[in-house]
Amino acid sequence: MSAAEGRTTGMLIIADDLSGAADCAIGFAGAGRRTVVTLDASGADASATVIAADTDTRRLSPSEAAARTADAWHALHALGRRLYKKIDSTLRGNWTAEVAALQPLAGLAIVAPAFPATGRTVRDARVLVHGEPLESTETWQLENAGRNAGLQPLLEAEGLRTERLSVDALRGDRAVLRERIAAAASADGAAQALIVDAETSADLSVLAKVTASMSEPFFWVGSGGLARELAALPDLFDAAPQPSATSSPEAGRAGAILILVGSLSAVSERQCAMLRERAGVPELVVPPAVLREGERHAAWSEWLDRIGAQLQADADLIVRIGRDEAFDPAEGAHLSTMLAALVAPHFGRLGGLIATGGETARAMLVAANIRSLELLAEIEAGVAVARPGGTARPAIVTKAGAFGSEHALYGAYLHLRGTAKPEHTAASTLATR
Predict the structure, then answer these.
(1) Per its record, what are the GO molecular function terms (predicted)?
(2) Other residues' Cβ atoms within 10 Å of the Cβ of residue 248
């Protein structure tokens, strides 16, 4: 949706997973804009200033992902509501097919996946993670080993004509920068996707400021990095901010805090370790074999009882998916669904939920019949606090699996518990495999 079609009254964010939708949209909530994440585009709260739709397309085929993304745009676009296509900062999923589906509908794709606050930068149209080429990282090797991670070849493989915008261009004369982007977005422009290098938050801030006032047909394509720079602009929307009546969930409420971890990244493992060590939260690691078979597995009832015993006693608990030699990244959604099924009978007892991994978070919300979240606050970059369906309980924190500092889960736990500094106690591990 271009600004030329009407005043900028809102933002539509289309994301391919739940944690991504939340970490992209949370900056707008922090700026006092009513912001919701919806799991169902057809049932979204259209009164919110910012709507982040989780299309749950990361594990679909490219053609299915493209069709579902276009459907979300058709269901939620409106006069004055601008489009932001949220993509993973490490380029997971079907993002190129989704961008290609949106480009004929919304104009030039301004592609800027950098998220400097989390160590993701873009140089020479290639993503770096803490200075390391994306191709070399565990995240890329797990799902895309042997594939070229260059932004230009990935987009051109979808038939999109590309141009590149260097960091020098962002740091030069802004009038010249605006003219160059406007020319690319014009009807006579040769490009369908403009790839933007960015190494700092200041680079993204310049891009946000220059493009926010443009009327040419375009849409943003990025991670939470560019989104938070747009959210920081005081005049992005016509209406004044209208913060939620409750700016944060009640701290220290009764009920267990459940930390549900579907991500197998080394980052998540370190975060769990700190939570165990500093807060003494016990951990259950569910074997993948149990989750693959579900109720058919001989130990299913045992695991259901073990998790239930902790949560029914209002005892905080980490529950995460184990890993074995048979693990396949493609089974992530199924394992997450089964993990949520183990928790679902006891969900009503929870005082708070921390969900790591978008598939895991979505599976748990679906199992608990929660179709939307209202975003409230951010604990650290990419770690969002929300409440379900406008209610106060349970408070929910979402975080992408490979995101966050080693303190991320510990900080989220402190936030939900309302505890300044828990005693350092030895963690108890209830099961290791």
Answers:
(1) ATP binding; kinase activity
(2) 12
Domain ranges of the chain: 3-231, 256-417
Is residue 97 packed enough to be buried (19+ CB in 10 Å), middle (13-18) or exposed (0-12)? buried
The interaxial angle of helices 18-30 and 224-231, nearest 10 deg, is 20
Do residues 149 and 133 lie in contact, with contact meaning Cβ atoms separated by under 8 Å? Answer: yes
Count CB neighbours of 433 within 10 A.
9
**Of 24, 90, 102, 25, which Cα lies nearest the Cα of 58?**
90
Domain 3-231 carries which CATH code? Answer: 3.40.50.10840
Report pTM: 0.88
Residue 53 contacts residue 15 (beta carbons within 8 Å)? yes
Query: Two tokens at 399?
Result: 């975080």
Closest CA to 56 of 67, 68, 47, 71: 68
Burial status of residue 371 (CB atoms within 10 A of its CB: 0-12, 13-18, 19 or more)? middle
More confident of the two residues 176 and 377: 176
Q: Is 136 helix (H, G, I), strand (E, B) or coil?
A: helix
Q: What was the pLDDT predicted at 249?
A: 52
> Tens digits of per-residue pLDDT, 82-96?
999 999 999 999 999
Q: Is the CATH number of domain 256-417 3.40.980.20?
A: yes
How far apart, in whole angstroms, are the C-alpha atoms of residue 249 and residue 376? 8
In this prediction, residues 313-331 reach a mean pLDDT of 88
Query: What CA–CA distance (Å, rounded) separates 373 from 141?
Result: 32
